[in-house]
Amino acid sequence: MSLTGIALILFLLFHASMNVVALISAEGYNMICGFLGANWYAVAATVGLAGLVVLHFIFAFWLTFQNWKARGTDRYAVTSKPKKVEWASQNMLVLGIIVILGMGLHLYNFWAKMMLVELVPCTGNHELATNGVYWIAETFSCPCYTVIYLVWLAALWMHLNHGLWSSMQTLGWSGKVWFNRWRAISCIVSTIIILMFAAVAVAYCFGYRPCDFNDVVNVANACHAGGLC
Amino acid sequence: MAKNISVTIKFWKQNGPKEKGHFDTHELKNIPDDTSFLEALDIMNEELISEGKEPFVFDHDCREGICGMCSLYINGTPHGKTERGATTCQLYMRKFKDGETITVEPWRSAGFPVIKDCMVDRNAFDKIMQAGGYTTVRTGQAQDANAILIPKDDADEAMDCASCIGCGACVAACKNGSAMLFVSSKVSQLALLPQGKAEAARRAKAMVAKMDELGFGNCTNTRACEAVCPKCETISNIARLNREFISAKLAD
Ligand code: SF4
Ligand code: FES
Questions:
Q1: B195: CATH
Q2: Which of B74, B211, B242 to mutate to test the interface with A (most CBs of A within 10 A)?
Q3: Range of the structural domain that residue B36 is part of
Q4: What span, in angstroms and rounded, lies between the C-alpha atoms of B141 and B144?
Q5: Does the pLDDT value for residue A221 go beyond 70?
Q6: What ipTM did this prediction achieve?
């Protein structure tokens, strides 16, 4: 769990940094989308990533099942949660399921319209497949999507905030001193990741566009209309 | 000055591990609030016996917080809401309000089957200790205090780990029924000292394997264990155990 979790956090850090480019330069962002299109390395990384998510998911269910069995059949009639026990730490599976559901929506909103279209041409508009900023604007101009994404990101923040220090604890890289350090690092890293994602969603929702946005999107639309590209 | 309070005790009755249990209630009237909680249960049992009822079964021994025999999940907390670092036998009636209903349940975990009522079988902890919680060398006579120099911090930490009394509150509080705080404290109390270090890898592997075999759950770092531990063990012991365990496995 901890190793797959850390690998996924590293991926999220990369993804979030890449997203921030969409606030600065539409062309720059689309260039990254081009690199990460249907190239062999991007497809291999996507397959690897999907494998990590599946492994993380399978481990989560297996652990939860073992732990549920270890709890015994009778449950306490009265329970009280000690102050130092965080809600997220006891509900990582629930949070994880929310994250996976959000990921399904995210794949539908972006991956299915971009990499999938490049790999399987008849599944969508090929000219817009590497035009990432177009799809960001398209998705987040709908406030409902923005709200859903923000809820998803809140769940992801809680998942990461517990997950990162917890992974380090499981790997044994913790102790009286490092425990507090890892807790602080977890909070900072998860907050940075979520803020980077949320900034793009909120900014695009409120109509912000990088200055070269119109050029990039109009070129794509013109190509699309003229059957060029 | 002590004042008297009246409370209702709602206690768990169960005839055996496979039997279905239920709650019974008993009203305790005019109990001085400087009575210990276990003494209050003794008074309740005397009243139950005089009423011709079966007494309530619960574990206890030293009644001074050192043996780890007392258990009881009181109002949703293992050992009740005692002072930090205290056991059920160190809980006093002044912690409760007049007229309060006090719910008393056993440790609930697959690793600790109920023997009767709130007495649970904690032999699993002994089996884990037998699997590796010792040093195999003959230690002979007590050594001269300075024969092996040990840094004060290490000695203090080993002593803190050794103060785990094996009560099982950590397992009872954990939503995963994990015994990691207990096992890690017992592994650490030896691994931190030069005499125990030599066998640290074998010990960690053997005790973790036994813990898994006995059906305890996996640690997901919720910290419920350290929040209720009457001896204030911390999850840094668990990190140490993980470290010992992973390096032992990698060395294999
Ligand atoms: S670690 Fe604490 S709660 Fe667990 S058995 Fe030892 S003393 Fe009891
Ligand atoms: S009876 Fe010995 S610790 Fe409570």
A1: 1.10.1060.10
A2: B242
A3: 4-115
A4: 9
A5: no
A6: 0.89
